[in-house]
From TrEMBL:
Record carries keyword Membrane: yes
Principal subcellular localization: membrane
Domain RagB/SusD, residue spans: 360-494
GO CC term, one of those recorded: cell outer membrane
Cited InterPro entries: SusD-like_N, SusD_RagB_dom, TPR-like_helical_dom_sf
All copies of domain SusD-like N-terminal, residue ranges: 92-222
Protein location: Cell outer membrane
Keyword entries, A-Z: Cell outer membrane, Membrane, Signal
Name of the featured protein: Starch-binding associating with outer membrane
């Protein structure tokens, strides 16, 4: 088969970002030249740049629609005048096509990061380091990041091109075509186990925020949960229990910039409003369109994306402190112009987790994005133990106690399975885990079909074709550009 390999060639031309704190270096152009990777300092910049790519993944408006808005936790605030948001709406309503730009951009950014870490992994071995454990750590950080990106790709798209070496020229790009799902998971497990062996348990000073052994073990556990290897998952999570993490007394503090990288934070995308290129922007994407200066303190347009649904609002039990910590209501007469306000007595909800004013007037915020928190580990461990005959109650009840809820006891296996799924939904709401949870538990078609019925009843704008949850739509289509340029087969049904 003739392969046209132009799209991934661009990966080697992107620039690397930098992160404040543990990534406190000036941005450097990403280089794969023969003369660059020759010393420790250059590899440090390269690893920092790979972390910097994660910042962009979380501050543009295409990744969260594919991991949270596609599920039942959030939708969007419709504005007929903003046709630029149409492709986000297509994702939310399951009207997506292979030409959707949000899907293409997510694919591009994940592979860009993979190319960056491949260069590090391929070139680091012959370079002399004053401390060989530092070399091993850099390699482990790169392997952790590669595993994480492929874990996103395989869950979103199924079998994908498995690129594990530096792409040096167009002829080397995607030459193997799409790998099987099994082969992708094999590579993920190899990378994450290698990372576990070489990453430290913690960091100090400016290195805080980098990938740790705890982050890699948590990733390993979630991979095994997805593969239904519950015993292996429980083993990984139980190792995390011994690494010194703990629940914060106050749930809301997990998202407050004043408590970054706290005892509950296992891995978070690092942001700093003090640096123009390193700030987060979640509230500016998620805040109600009509709020503007009432919420952010200066004139500006908000995105109206990732708006909490009535379904997630109702999901919190009476007395659950997490609802008010996660969802904030915007009250204004202009809400009457938007259908979304009808289910909330004229208010429009937005994600309060990421709302901590005051903000800088050029649209800079200071929140980190939580990827893995200790409460997530406790709930996944409880789920795994329920599947293997262990005692799950200490772990789920620790999370519920922090939320102000009564403990659970005496549930059968099926009832506990539903209880822990519910607990994960509300504990991790708006943290980009809901779609993956529905996929791995086999509930996506059932839950999203029911969700679609409710959405059609309350939103007149939806068409009869909206929320037709055919099984093939559980995977996103391979971007049409990749089909055209590389000759890949499309996912069945698309």
């Amino acid at each position: 088969m003739k392969h046209h390999k132009y799209s991934i060639l661009l990966l080697s031309l992107f620039t690397l970002g930098s992160c404040h704190n543990m990534l406190d270096v000036e941005p450097h152009t990403f280089s794969s030249g023969e003369n660059y990777y020759e010393n420790e300092g250059q590899f440090l910049r390269a690893v920092n740049g790979a972390y910097g790519s994660l910042q962009e993944l979380y501050t543009v408006d295409h990744f969260f629609p594919m991991t949270e808005m596609v599920a039942d936790n959030t939708n969007y605030q419709f504005d007929a005048s903003d046709r630029g948001a149409q492709q986000r709406e297509e994702i939310d309503e399951f009207l997506i096509t292979p030409t959707n730009n949000y899907v293409t951009r997510t694919w591009d950014m994940l592979y860009r990061n993979i190319q960056q870490v491949n260069v590090i992994i391929d070139r680091i071995e012959p370079v002399e380091f004053s401390d060989e454990s530092l070399k091993a750590r850099y390699r482990g950080e790169a392997q952790f990041l590669r595993a994480m990106q492929y874990f996103h790709l395989v869950r979103l798209f199924g079998g994908v091109p498995l690129v594990v070496h530096e792409v040096e020229d167009p002829e080397g790009a995607f030459s193997e075509g799409r790998a099987s799902v099994e082969a992708v998971y094999e590579q993920i497990l190899a990378d994450v186990n290698a990372a576990i062996a070489s990453l430290p348990e913690s960091y100090s000073g400016g290195d805080i925020g980098r990938a740790t052994k705890g982050a890699a073990l948590t990733l390993l556990g979630e991979v095994h949960m997805t593969l239904h290897n519950y015993g292996d998952a429980a083993d990984a999570f139980e190792q995390v229990l011994n690494l010194g993490y703990d629940l914060l007394p106050n749930y809301a503090d997990n998202f407050d910039p004043a408590f970054k990288n706290n005892a509950e934070s296992i891995f978070a995308i690092q942001f700093d409003a003090g640096l123009q290129t390193e700030a987060s922007n979640f509230i500016f994407m998620f805040g109600p369109r009509n709020a503007k200066d009432e919420l952010i303190g200066f004139s500006g347009n908000l995105g109206g994306s990732n708006i909490p649904t009535p379904s997630i609002y109702r999901a919190y039990e009476d007395g659950d402190v997490r609802r008010d910590a996660s969802i904030t209501m915007f009250s204004d007469a202009s809400n009457a112009d938007f259908e979304e306000s009808k289910a909330f007595d004229g208010d429009i909800p937005f994600i309060g987790k990421y709302y901590h004013p005051p903000f800088l007037e050029d649209g800079r915020a200071d929140e980190n994005w939580p990827v893995y928190r200790y409460s997530h580990v406790l709930l996944m461990l409880a789920e795994a133990l329920n599947e293997t005959g262990g005692d799950p109650y200490p772990y789920i009840n620790a999370v519920r106690e922090r939320a102000g809820l009564d403990p659970l006891s005496g549930l059968g296996e099926d009832a506990f399975r539903e209880a822990v799924a519910h607990e994960q939904r509300v504990e991790l709401a708006f943290e980009n885990h809901r779609w993956y949870q529905l996929l791995r538990t086999g509930k996506a078609v059932e839950v999203m079909t029911e969700h679609g019925i409710e959405e059609k009843e309350r939103l007149n704008r939806l068409s009869s074709a909206s929320y037709m949850i055919d099984p093939h739509k559980l995977l996103f289509p391979i971007p049409a550009r990749e089909i055209r340029l590389n000759g890949f087969e499309q996912n069945p049904g698309w």
